[in-house]
Design a protein that fits this description.
4 copies of one chain form a homotetramer.
Chain A (H helix, E strand, L loop, with lengths): L19 H12 L2 E3 L4 H4 L11 E3 L1 H14 L2 H4 L3 E4 L15 E7 L4 E7 L3 E15 L2 E4 L5 E4 L5 E18 L1 H6 L5 E3 L13 H6 L4 E3 L13 E2 L1 H14 L8 E5 L13 E7 L8 E3 L3 E7 L1 E6 L2 E6 L3 E4 L5 E5 L6 E7 L1 H6 L5 E3 L11 E2 L1
Parallel strand pairs in A: 18-23
Antiparallel strand pairs in A: 2-19, 3-4, 4-9, 5-9, 5-10, 6-7, 6-8, 6-9, 8-12, 13-14, 14-21, 15-22, 16-19, 16-21, 17-18, 17-20
Chain lengths: 374, 374, 374, 374
C-alpha cells in the first residue's frame, strides 16, 4: 500500500480556513469548555513524534567535584537522599533527565545511612564507585559493588547506607518519578521505624534467584517485580563475553542483553527496563530510531555516539540520553578494548501500551552525517 | 505497621535550610545541567496525587445547539472530522477533557463521510443519536445505533459516515491522544485510497465474536486488541438487568460491568477501558477514590454525583469527568427508573504499570459533605 | 525438506537382527529390570498414532428404553448416580467411551436427588430432556434445560436433582475419569453434610458472566475454571445463526464455535473442551484428521458422518465418537433444516502438552470412499 | 468442614446389591455397548490414587557391565540408538520406568554417531561419563560433559555422537514416550539427509541464554520450549551452593531448584520438568507424597531414601523412581559431603491439567517406619 506524503494540505487533515463567523463560533464554544477539534487537530495528531527532550551528555569529570562537594554541604538525614540530579534543559518543569525519566547521582560516606521510605515511583541504581555500600529493599539486604545493577520497585521500602569501614560511595539513580507524577499516581511513605532493621543474609536475593536457568523449586513470590534484585557486574560481563563468542551482534547495538525477571523472562520492574551492551573493538553500529527514552551510562571504555547528527564523545562514567524517535548510532574508538554501555529506559511502558516503533536509517550506508559535536 | 503523619518536617523528607553557600552551589550545579534533589524532592515525591484536572460537567442541553451549528460551518472533508471537543480548564495545553484523555462530540449529516486515517492513539465511540451512521475499522464495517459502544484501536484504519437515507448522527469520541503525545509516541497516516472500500458484511464482528461464552473455533486473530469491536446497547442493557437480578451490586458503583476482549477477558484496547453501570431506583452509592481518569456519559436516566464535595446534577447525554484520587459517589434520583452511566477510563494504563490504588471514604457513613453545586 | 518413506528398514529405525548371543543378553538384562530399546523401539515410536478406540455410534432409540428401565431398578441414593455409561469395545478395561473420556446418560425422576461429592476428574453435562432438573456446583445453583451445556470442574462439589413438580430428566455426562486415573491423580470425597444446602439465586452464574463482551467489573474469581458454568441453548443457537450469517464456515466443520471461559477466552475447564457446530442445509464437509478424542451428541437435525471410511447415520440425541487421527467428515441430509452437533473433547490436554496435530484429506476432492455403513 | 470416612458403604458411593433382575439388565446393556456406572463407580472413582508402578532402584554397579556389553553387540546405525532401558515390573506393557515416563542409558564409543530423527515425545539427557560426546538439537550443537543436563524437545530434530578423539560416553535418557503413546499423539520422522550437518558454534545456546538474569535483547524465539538447551553442571552446582548459603531448605527436599526456560520462568519443555537438589551433610528430610512420577539420578554422594516404607540405599549414578502418592523421604549419610540428586518428572502435566496435589506425613515426627530394605 503506497504511503501518502506528510502534507497538511490534503484530504484527511484539518484544512479549515479561518473567517469571522468561525471566530465567533470558537468564542461561543470556549464559554462551554469546548473547542473545535479542527483548530488543533494537526498539532495534536502529528505525523510522527517530535522529541520533548534534548539529547545531552553529562561528563563525569565535570560533575564529580560538585557531587563530592555535596558531602560537606548536606547530610542524608536532612536531604532525605544526597542526590545531584540530571536536569534536561527542556524538562526543567518535571525535573527529568529525559522524557519522563529522572536520574541523579547519589553519594554517601562511610557510616552514613539514609532512612527508609517507599513511593509508587520505581527506582534503580548503577554503582559507580566505593566500598561497603548497601541497600535494603523490602527487607532484602544487598551489597553494592562497582557496576552492579540493583532495583527498587514501586512500593518497596528501601534505604541505603555505607558501612563504617567502607569508602565514599557513588551511584546513579534512575526513577520514573516524572511519569508517575504525570499519571497522577505517586504516593510516598516514610518508614514508621525510620529503618527496616532487617537481619536477612546479605545478598540472599542473587544467591537464590541468580543461577542461570535455575529457580528455587519451592519459594513463593507474589510480587509483580523481579525477586532477583541485584545483577552483579562479574556475571553480567561474563554473560556479554559468552554471548559475543557466538553472535554477530545487532547492527544497531552490538552485543546487547536485557536484564530480566527470571520468574517471567520480562522486565524486572513494571515501568523501567535496563540493558547492557558491548561494542567490540572498533565496532561502529548503524543508526536507527525508536519510541521510548534511553539513558546511557558508560560502564567501561571510551567511544562516541551520534545522536540526531550531533557527535557525543564519551568515556567511563559519563551519562548521556537519547530521546524518542531520534536517529542514533554508537562507536567504540578503541582497536583493542571493548566498550560497555549500561542503559535504562521506559520500554516496558512503550511495549505494554503498544507504543513501541522502530525504524532503521536507510541512507548513507546506515550512518548519519555529523553536523556538530557536543 | 503504624503509618507516620504526612509532614515534610520529619526524617525521610527533604529538610535542608537554605543559605548563601548552598545558593552558590545550586548556581554552579545549574551550569552543568544538574540540580540538587533536595530542592525539589518534596514536590516531586508528594504524599499522594493532587488532581491535574478539574471535575467538570458538560450538559447536553447547553452543547447541542453549538454542535449542530458545526454542520453548516465546516465539512468533514475540510475538518478531517467534524468534532467539538471537551476542554478541561486545567488541560488547555494538551487539549484534554480529563488527565491525558481527549473527548469530543462528532456530528455528521446523511450522505457525508470522513476519509480514512490511522494513528497510534486509540479511539472509542458512544453513540448518542441518529440513523444510518457507520464506521469502518480495518475493513470491518460496523453500524452505529444509539448507545452502542464501538472501538477503533491504535493503528487501525478507520472512517465514518452516514447513509444517504439516514439522519443527522452524533456520537461521543474518546481518545488517548494526550497520553500518546505525552509519551512521544503518536503517528498519523492518511489512507492512500482516501477510503477503505470494504465489502465485508455489516456487523460481522459482533456476529462472530458477540455470543456469550462462545468464540469461533477456527478463526485466527493476531491483533492485540479485541476482535469484538461493537457492543450493542440491547445486549449490554440486558446484561446489566440480568446481573442486577442476582447481585447486590458494588457499594461504590452499583451494578457495574466492564467491556472486554472476549479472546482474553481483558480490556478491549491497550490504553483505554470502558464500563457500563446501572444505579437502581433510589440507589445512592458510597464515596471512594482511585487513581486513573474517568469520563462518564449518562446513557439513561437522571441523577447526581458528588465529586470532591461538589454536587453535579446530570441527565441523559450529559458528560462529566472524575479526575484521579478525588472522592466521588453517585445517586439515581428516580424512585422508579434505573439510571445508566457509560464511562471510559485509562485503567489499563494504571493496571499495567501497577499504578492502580483505591480507597474507601471512611467517614460520615461513606458520604461526603456537599460544599457546593455545579 | 523431502520426507522419507515410513519404512522400518532404513537408517534411523531399529534394524537389529536377532541371534542367540543377543537372546542371552536380553535374558540377562531382564534380570536387572532392564531391556534393549531396539527390541521395542519401532513399536513405541510409531510413525503415527493408531487409534486405541473404535469409532462407534450409540443411537438414542436403542438406548432410551434401557435408560428409562433404570428408574425402577436402582435409586440415586444406592447408585450414587443413576448413569448408564457408553462403553467402547476397545476400552472396557478403563470404562471409556473413547480414548480417556468417559460418557454416560443420567436419568432422574421428579423429587429425586443425588448426594453431593467431588472428584479430581472434571465433568460436563448436555441436557437431553426433562423439566425441573437442577445441579449445584460449588454452591452455584443451575437449572438444566434441554440442550443446555453445564460444567462441573475438577474438585468442585456437585449434586443433581429434579424438582417435585418436574418431569423425568435425562442428560449426557462427559468426564475425564479414565485420564485422571491413567495419570494416577483421582481423588474422591463425599460431602460431609450429604447436600450443599445452597441458597444462592438460581442461575446467578450465567446472569453474572453470560453477557456478550461484558464481565462484572468488581467480582473476584480465583478458580482456574470458568465462572460461567451454564451455557444456555437459546443464546448458543442464536450465536450459531449470527455467525452463519457472516461466515463461509470451516471446510471440515461448517459453522463451529467453542465454549469458553469468558475471563480468559480459553477452555472452560483444564482438561476438556466443548464445541457446538451447525451444518447448514445440504452441507457436506471435507475430511480431515487430528489428534485428540471427540464425542459428539446430535443436538438438532439428522445427517451422517463418515469416519475412517465407515458411514454413521445419525439423528437427534444420537451419540458417536471420533478417535484420534482418523479421517472424518460430516453431512447434513436435510435440504431445508440445519443440523447441530454438540461435542466435547480432550483438546485442552492436546494443546497444553503440545500434542495437537491436524491434517486435511487431500485425495478425491477431500471426501473418503465409503467402505461400509454402521 | 469435617471430612467423612473413606468407606464405600455410605451415601455418595455406589451401594447397589446384585440380583438376578439386575444381571439380566446388565447383559442387555452390554449388547448396546453400554453398562451401568454403579457396577464400576467405586473402582474408577477411588478415594485416592493407588500407584501403577513399583518403587525400584537400578544400581549402577549392576548395570554398568551390561551397558558396556552393548558396545560390541549392536551398532548405533542398526539400533537407531544404543540404549538399555529401565523397565518397571508393573509397566512392561508400556516400556516405562515409572508411570508414563521412559528412561534408558545410552552408550557410544568414539567416532560413532546415531542418525537424526524427531518424534512428538520429548527427551532429556543427564550425562554420566565420557569425553567428546555431543548432540545436535534442531541445528544447535551442544557438547555433553559429566552431569550436564540437556533437553531435546517434542518435534526437534536430534542426533548424537562422540568425537573420534573422545572416550566411551554414557548418559541417561528420559522421555515421555509412554505418555505420548497413551495420548495417541506420537509421530516419528527420520531426517531426509540422515544427519543435520550443522555448522553453528558449539554451545551457542548456553552462551546466549545462560547468563543469570540476562537475555539477549534482540533475538527472536518462537518455539514453545526453552532456548537454553544445556544446563552445565558447574553453574548448576554453584547455584545450589549459593542458594544453600542463604536458605534453610525445604523440609521434604533440602536445597532444591528447578530447571527453567529463561524466557518464561516455566518448565523447559511442555511435558517434563527436571530438578536438582542438594542434601547437606547429615540431612534427613521429612516424608511427603504428591501426584506425579519422579525418576532420580544420584549425581553426587551417597545416602538412602525411604519410599513407601522401604529403604533404598543409593550411591553415585544409581537411578531410582518414586511413583505417585507414595510417602518418600531422603537422607544424606555423609557427615561431611553433600549429596546431589538430579531428577526428572511429569509435573508439567500435573500442573497444566490441575492434577498436582501434595500432602505432608503427619505422624512420627514426619518419618516413616521402615518395613524392609531394597
Amino acid at each position: 500500500m503506497a504511503t501518502k506524503d506528510q502534507s497538511d494540505d490534503q484530504l484527511g487533515r484539518a484544512r479549515v480556513r479561518d473567517n469571522a463567523e468561525l471566530q465567533a463560533y470558537y468564542e461561543e464554544l470556549a464559554k462551554h469548555d469546548t473547542a473545535a477539534l479542527w483548530t488543533v487537530a494537526n498539532d495534536i495528531e502529528p505525523w510522527h513524534p517530535t522529541p520533548a527532550s534534548d539529547a545531552i551528555i553529562w561528563r563525569h569529570k565535570d560533575l564529580r567535584p560538585h557531587i563530592l562537594a555535596a558531602l560537606d554541604l548536606v547530610s542524608p538525614e536532612a536531604a532525605g537522599r544526597r542526590v545531584i540530579y540530571l536536569r534536561n534543559p527542556k524538562r526543567h518543569e518535571v525535573s527529568a533527565a529525559c522524557g519522563w525519566l529522572f536520574s541523579g547521582i547519589q553519594v554517601m560516606r562511610p557510616g552514613e545511612s539514609a532512612p527508609a521510605h517507599n513511593h509508587a515511583a520505581s527506582a534503580l541504581r548503577f554503582i559507580m564507585e566505593g566500598a561497603g555500600a548497601y541497600t535494603v529493599v523490602d527487607g532484602h539486604r544487598l551489597s553494592l559493588g562497582a557496576r552492579d545493577f540493583v532495583i527498587t520497585p514501586n512500593g518497596a521500602w528501601h534505604e541505603h547506607g555505607v558501612a563504617e569501614d567502607g569508602a565514599v560511595s557513588m551511584w546513579q539513580d534512575g526513577l520514573d518519578i516524572p511519569l508517575t507524577n504525570a499519571l497522577e499516581a505517586n504516593f510516598y511513605e516514610v518508614h514508621p521505624d525510620d529503618y527496616q532493621n532487617s537481619n536477612t543474609p546479605m545478598d540472599a536475593s542473587p544467591a537464590t534467584y541468580g543461577a542461570p536457568g535455575l529457580l528455587p523449586a519451592k519459594e513463593s513470590w507474589g510480587a509483580h517485580y523481579s525477586p532477583l534484585m541485584k545483577y552483579g557486574w562479574d556475571q553480567t560481563y561474563e554473560g556479554l563475553q559468552n554471548y559475543a563468542r557466538v553472535s554477530d551482534g545487532d547492527p544497531f547495538d552490538g552485543i546487547i542483553m536485557r536484564f530480566t525477571n527470571p520468574l517471567t523472562g520480562g522486565h524486572p520492574m513494571a515501568t523501567m527496563g535496563a540493558q547492557i551492551q558491548m561494542l567490540r573493538p572498533g565496532e561502529h553500529t548503524k543508526a536507527h530510531r525508536h519510541t521510548g527514552n534511553v539513558i546511557y551510562h558508560v560502564a567501561k571504555g571510551a567511544g562516541h555516539s551520534v545522536i540526531g547528527g550531533v557527535r557525543f564523545d564519551w568515556r567511563e562514567k559519563d551519562i548521556f540520553c537519547v530521546p524518542p524517535w531520534i536517529w542514533h548510532e554508537h562507536a567504540n574508538e578503541s582497536a583493542s578494548e571493548d566498550a560497555c554501555l549500561f542503559s535504562f529506559n521506559d520500554f516496558p511502558v512503550m511495549e505494554k501500551l503498544h507504543f513501541y516503533r522502530e525504524q532503521a536509517y536507510a541512507e548513507n550506508g546506515g550512518h548519519q552525517q555529523i553536523t556538530s559535536t557536543a
